[in-house]
Amino acid sequence: MHSSVLLEYPAYNIAELNDLYAQAMKSFHHKIVVLDDDPTGIQKVHGVHVYTNWEEESILDGFQSEQQMFFILTNSRAFSKEKTKQVHQEITERVIKAAKQTDTPFIIISRGDSTLRGHFPLETATIHDTLNHTADGELIIPFFKEGGRYTLNNIHFVESNGELIPAGETEFAKDRTFGYTSSHLGEYVEEKSNGAFLKENVTYITLEDLRSLHIEKITEQLINVTDFNKVVVNAISDDDLKVLSIALVAALNNGKQFLFRTAASFTKVIGRVPDKELLSKEEMIEAGSNAGGLIIVGSHVNKTTQQLNELLKLDFVEPIEFNSDLVLHAELFEKEIQACIQKLDENIQNGQTSVIYTKRKRLDLGAGMAEKELELSVKISDGLTRTIQSLSSKPKYIIAKGGITSSEIGTTALGVKKALVLGQALPGIPVWKTDENSKYPNMPYVIFPGNVGNVTDLYTIVKNLE
Could you tell me the keywords of this UniProt record (predicted)? Predict the structure, then answer.
């Protein structure tokens, strides 16, 4: 299906919609707690904080903040099912405690991948269990325009070269850990829940009703949801989510309670985050720095490899391949780590910008070895992380490519505990400002998701920062 179909839906009267949205949000006072399964959930926001831990004091700090929304980076996409369940139970218990201490109502958003990968329905099911089954339903909103992810006619699509490809037919659906077959979100729910939730019991919020401002009808649909049944939200623009939010606030004010499994767009809309221009070089680089820049590439999706190949066309960027296959040989793997540390330190000190990247072909151990492959991928990630953690020189900027990679680099290598989201380097590519106690205090840290951006985006960011 050609993407021109997106233009066939009637346009909103933006002034009217924004007025209705502003009025509705005046009565929405819930604290918004976003549990992010990798660091890319902040792709649409700025001026909010991200905690890289879920200690009681961090969650309480988030509740006591004047900001309505805060993020907790769980990085759960890199976790086993058991650890994911344990972490989400722990976080939810602490959220309940902080909410009681501050007497604050709250909603929890499980921010997942816009291409439907991740621990669904485990994460929201665990939150629901820990909340003593108080949620009436769960809204599923994977729309994310900047990544070309659209939901229409209840089918989730990924845009590629002007075509809308059903998500179940893309490389993302073949993910070794989080694969699926269904592109229809009702069928996806049924598939991932092993039939616990049937597609015919799912509530569908249509684009036609959103574009027609049938707010009372949508509110009624939400009010009628019970037994933690699922609500699929069709959306092709942030404005569609504004209409949804108007109806959602009305349903919440009517006593309904919901959990949310969404991509990044919904957090911006429900959190009332205003638009902001892309960050300039001056906002991202410390004046007078003569050090080399540092780019780290861990993601293996095709788009990342294409973007890396484009980046390497810049003659001022030195490529350093991290031989991740050596993970099978402990002694050789350690030597590889030490060699990379030495080379990167030399380059940074000499003003030479470098890109360190894992081998582009993933280790394939054969059928039935998915768990072992995941274990090895974690060891590779740990090795790459330790390489950055051990550097003695400070680069003028850091870019990490890949969700899990950027999470590990940010939290473990750089030691960030509470980051401020500065904004975006390019659409969908967020930038943290590291905290005072991190390895490189107050440094802009570019978090570049693996499956986002044009082929030339990594090239463009690096060129702009030189």
Answer: ATP-binding, Carbohydrate metabolism, Kinase, Nucleotide-binding, Transferase
Tell me the DSSP string of 420-433: EEEEEEETTEEEEE
Which has the closest alpha carbon to 184: 253, 232, 217, 219? 232
Tell me which DSSP letter residue 398 carries: E
* pLDDT tens column, 54-106: 999 999 999 999 999 999 999 899 899 999 999 999 999 999 999 999 999 99
**In the structure encoding, which two tokens stand for residue 389, read together?**
């953690």
The pTM (predicted TM-score) of the whole model is 0.88
CA atoms lying within 13 Å on the CB side of residue 179: 9
Q: Are 399 and 462 in contact (CB under 8 A)?
A: yes
Fold of 3-270: Rossmann fold (3.40.50)
SS3 181: coil
What gap in Å lies between CA 399 and CA 419, rounded to an integer? Answer: 15
Q: Which CATH architecture has domain 288-415+422-465?
A: 3-Layer(aba) Sandwich (3.40)
Instruction: Enter the tokens of residue 324.
Output: 């991740």
Query: How far is Cα 217 from Cα 209, in angstroms, rounded to an integer?
Result: 8
